Amino acid sequence: MQNSGSDKSATWFKRFTGGFDGPRLSFSMRTAIGCCLALIIAWAMGLEHPQWAGMSVWAASQPMRGQLLEKSLFRFVGTVCGTLVGMVLVQASPLLLVVGLALWVGFCTWSSNLQRGLAAYGYVLAGYSAAMVSLLATGQPDNVWHLGADRMATVLTGVVVATLIGYCLSKAGDAQVMREPGLQLLGDILRKHAQQGLDDKAANSLLNRLAMIDEMLEQHGAGSLRGRRKVRATRRLLLATVPLLLHAPVYRDKDRQVLLSASDALHRGDVKTAQQLLRRLEEVDEAGRVFRRIVAVLDALNNAEAQNDAGNGRHGAVLTAVHCDWIGARQAGLRAAFALLAVGLLWIVSGWASGAYVLLGLSVMISVFSGFENPVWIIRHVFAGQCMAALAALACHILLWPYAQSELQQLLMMMPFILAGVLLNGHSLTFVAAMDFHMVFLLLSQPHVPYVPNLEQSIYLSFAVVSAPALAWGMYALVYPANVESRRQHVLRMMLNDLAALTKRTKTAAERDLWEARFFHRVLRFMHFSHKLSAEDMKALATSRAILQLSQAVLNWQVAINNPATPQRSRKILQQAVTHAGSFELDAVRSLRGLRFLAVYAPDGFKPSLQDGIDAIAALAGGTAH
To answer: Which InterPro entries does this chain map to (predicted)?
Structure first.
């Protein structure tokens, strides 16, 4: 009830103020104050680039304590690694610097796209920190060690300030809050099963709810080993639930009553009773194995001492393997390397004085947003934020800084712009652009006295900085286009690749469990992206079911092939069936013809599974192209 009242207050405030979000305004204001404080502390310490400390505050601050601690750690580690690489690169010739930087940022971008949560940020930061050190030190390699030390000191200053302020004022995240929606959703699914009401529309809606919970899990487990265990336990529950939405068996009357009672227990929060009830369904022919796993997961959730990875093996619960977009990661790494190499070579050939700033900005844009669902969309907002920052920096430098008598006064003159930027953070229309407003304003604001204003040079430098998002937009749109549809296709390709791998060799029981866990998580990701392309929703559900049906048929054939009791003739038939299943993408018509032929001559005991394979390939042949 308290959360509901808080939500209503936030909604009222947003409506009353015309789109301003109260919690976001509060968080942004404390971050802006921390930024101003970091500027003063870094200047008082005699650091040459105090504005970098302010940038670190904005980059490290998070609304929840666990996220704050974890991101601060990754920011520091990523900065140290990137700074060391940058110190090495700046010693090389311009050509080797550009090539080395392209390879390093490409590698870091590839690595970040294989990570989940805030770990990805550490890899990205390692990439563009090297760019920041090596490019800003170009032409003065003798000063690079001083620049690197200054960079690390300012980052550490910003991280410490952000951590102290955030730790005192932010609330701790609790992975336990995600457990309740998962249990409530399981209760809804069981009720649908009991009422025989799980049609395609209902299954699609429930899968999307599962995907939304999964999407929110990482942020609640950040910064805490205990929180991570809770996240894994909750994800284990989600993955155990997915099969109930891909297949709905026909239940007996007494089983439906058990499902209804278990659903009621879950809605009351009585996990122990639900677990005891579901044990009665462990012998249901078509879904017994699924219910055994759900019971095991509920046992782990209900028993605090069992909430660890050891529970996997003891209870046979679903593993917590997650989807990794290897295709998207490879494309992101190649895109980043190509972009920096192309622009870097153009900079060397043209000798453009501000080319280093373009390359620096591009290294950030092409790596930070590579893991976003739709970088092309967000880059437009980034460009707007950077343009506003460039105008604010021009106003500050041309109108105010000439009157400053010291660097401290210059820093004080920057603060009204920083505090005014909080309004961008707090409004629903501009919050996406707000971070880049602060970052670019600080990047362009290197305090020094005596200050001689040069409008032409300032405009020239501002243009160089804001050209980076425009270049990144072109790269995201043209080089391995990154959008929701492409990410949806990547998940589908990974599921089909896993299916093909199943046909190559017989999997052990542990390997099958791992494949199944990863497949169920990929189904959630597939449904998540398909839901954003509403026309693909039902196709995604049908495709997921068909892949699971064909995969299970292949696994059943392999078990029979390796069973000494299976007659030799049946083994040959099933081995040919596995081969046809593995080649269906190359020639679906031939695979279907082959399986149908085998089904005619197969023993009666294998005809149902062969028919499952035929039905699945027929469905996939018409759906995988979408």
So the answer is: PHBA_efflux_AaeB/fusaric-R
CB 437 within 8 A of CB 384: no
Tokens 């409530």 — which residue?
A: 184
CA distance 535 to 288: 34
pLDDT of residue 312: 43
d(CA 92, CA 436): 31
Cα four-point dihedral sign 20, 21, 23, 24? negative
**DSSP structure string for 511-522:** HHHHHHHHHHHH
Backbone conformation region of residue 316, classed left if phi is above 0, alpha if psi is from -120 to 50, else beta: left
Q: Are residues 280 and 338 in the same domain?
A: no
347 plus 412 within the same structural domain: yes
Coil/strand/helix, residue 20:
strand
| Residue 155 resides in a domain | yes
pTM: 0.85
Q: Are residues 162 and 305 in the same domain?
A: no
The C-alpha R_g of the chain, in whole angstroms, comes to 28
Claim to verify: residue 260 and residue 331 sit in the same structural domain:
no
- Given 281, 315, 349, which residue is the final one in a domain? 315
pLDDT at 139: 56
- List of residues 6+ apart from 410 with CB closer than 8 A: 401, 404, 445, 447, 448, 449, 451
Domain containing residue 596: 484-623
Total structural domains within the chain: 3
**Pair 510, 319: CB distance under 8 Å:** no
Q: Are residues 185 and 127 in the same domain?
A: no
Which tokens sit at 424?
């961008």
CA distance linking residue 284 with residue 263, whole number of Å = 17
Give the per-residue pLDDT at 223: 60
pLDDT the model gives residue 625: 39
pLDDT value of position 162:
87
Question: Which tokens in the block code for residue 265?
Answer: 């227990």
Distance of CA 464 to the CA centre of its chain: 30
DSSP secondary-structure letter at 398? I
Contacts of 228 (CB under 8 A, 6+ apart): 175, 221
191 is a domain residue? yes
Instruction: Centre a 10 Å sphere on the Cβ of residue 218 and count the other Cβ atoms it contains.
Output: 18
Other beta carbons less than 10 A from residue 405's beta carbon: 10
Using CA atoms, how far residue 257 sits from 188, 193, 195, 252, 495, in Å, is 14, 10, 9, 9, 36
Residues 278 and 301 in one domain: yes
- Which pLDDT does position 550 carry in this prediction? 94
From 438, 463, 478, give the residue that closes a domain.
478
Q: Are residues 519 and 547 in the same domain?
A: yes
Q: For residue 128, which of 163, 89, 158, 95 has the smallest C-alpha distance?
A: 89
Paired tokens of 432: 């996406």
**Strand, helix or coil for residue 138:** coil
Is 320 within a domain? no
One domain, residues 331 and 446: yes
User: Which residues of the chain fall short of a pLDDT of 50?
Assistant: 1-2, 4, 304-317, 624-626
Spatial distance between the Cα atoms of 208 and 349, rounded to a whole number of angstroms: 51
Separation of alpha carbons 90 and 371, rounded Å: 28
Closest CA to 561 of 621, 609, 529, 492: 609
